[in-house]
Amino acid sequence: MFRYLLLIAVLLTPSFALAQEEQPITWGGYTLKPTLLMQGSYNDNLRAEDANEAGDFVTTIAPALSISKSIRDHEFTLKADGEMTRHKDESDEDTTNYKLRFDGLLTALRSLKIPFFASYKQDHRQRYQERTATTSVEPIEYNETRMGAGVAYQPNRAFVKAYGRYQQRRFDNGRNNAGGIVVRKDGDFDQIEAEIRVGYDSPLGYAPFLGLSYAVTDYERGTFNGTDFSGAKRDNDAVQAVAGMGFDYKGLVVGEVAIGQSWQRYDDAGIDDISALALRGEITWKPRERLALSVVASRKAEEDNFINQGLVETALALGAEYEIAHELFMNAALGYEFDDFESSNREDDIYSGSLGLVYKINRRFALETSYQMRSRQSNQAAAEYDQNIFRIGLKSSL
């Protein structure tokens, strides 16, 4: 009972959007935003396990740099992020990650804009993201390349937006306590996605639209069955069709809601196809100048890299940001997710919550502290875990 009372009191992931207004540096026509986060935390269940829980103190250093440049009506931004974590006792959990991303927005005509991006990152899957019981001694590392481009044409109140995206993800194998290999290479995939949206911006601040997306995911190899990659190959096609409404009421209530249907069809007849109601919505409400409330909801067919089946994911998150005083900000959120696995009777309920405070020491420095919890309840006991994380850090915008 205490767990569920706690969920009402604390909330999801702190973003500190109200508090952290980074101070840009202007130089030679470029806008630079360098930041540095130095953080200490305690995680009471590092590997998000149901048994043999191990806690540890974690030190994190995360530098970031954003460089923006405008050339006439065109905009370009280069972002570089890094993160290094070091653990007091569990050194196998240490990670070093980085990400590079370039965004551009070309204005061909007043009514025609061409957005594009390209990114590359080296990252590690978080322990709480693992849905499989087989874990490695160290977090699973992967490299991801993404790129995309589109057109947004709006000659009047009617608009057409079309996008194409490409994603490639490659995993490194892990190792178990006995020194054996934990194979993750069967999660490698390439994905191509196309999306189109047509709609109308009404003079009342409402924008009804229709959207259609189609994605093809191609896995590099079949599922590892203990000796080779001759298991099921999870190549699939995913289609989603939705009708929705965007809205902006005087900047006080802003958001978008959509409803439709999603389908996921697997090439391998041994993997069940999925058809599910698709929902998504994002609403931000500012009832007061110092208070912002948000709701994010979604329901969709989902493909996990390491389970030999698809699932339907339903999620809801509530958030709040409040300026307590001129220098003091609070951030809170509450999250719930329900995962319904298609080819088995497994069902997971995932609860999450956090509460955070940010104190702005001056224009360049801010002190951050937060508490975060996650809990996964499942009809498969080995998949369950409880996790609590306490953080304190100093963030600077140099």
Task: Spell out the blueprint of helices and strands.
Elements: H1 2-9, E1 25-27, E2 30-43, E3 56-71, E4 74-87, E5 95-109, E6 112-124, E7 141-153, E8 158-171, E9 174-175, E10 181-182, E11 189-200, E12 206-219, E13 236-249, E14 253-266, E15 274-288, E16 291-303, E17 310-323, E18 328-341, E19 347-360, E20 365-378, E21 385-397
Antiparallel strand pairs: 1-2, 2-3, 2-21, 3-4, 4-5, 5-6, 6-7, 7-8, 8-11, 9-10, 11-12, 12-13, 13-14, 14-15, 15-16, 16-17, 17-18, 18-19, 19-20, 20-21
How does this model look, in words?
The strands form 2 sheets. The chain has an 18-stranded antiparallel barrel. It has a two-stranded antiparallel sheet with strand order 9-10. The protein is mostly beta strands and 398 residues long. The protein has one helix at 2-9; strands at 25-27, 30-43, 56-71, 74-87, 95-109, 112-124, 141-153, 158-171, 174-175, 181-182, 189-200, 206-219, 236-249, 253-266, 274-288, 291-303, 310-323, 328-341, 347-360, 365-378, 385-397. The protein has a single domain, classed as Maltoporin, Chain A. It has 1 helix and 21 strands. 2% of the residues lie in helices and 65% in strands.
Quick summary of this structure?
With 398 residues, the chain is an all-beta fold. The protein contains one helix and 21 strands.
List its traits.
single chain, 398 residues, mainly beta, Maltoporin, Chain A, 18-stranded antiparallel β-barrel, two-stranded antiparallel ribbon, 1 helix, 21 strands, disordered N terminus
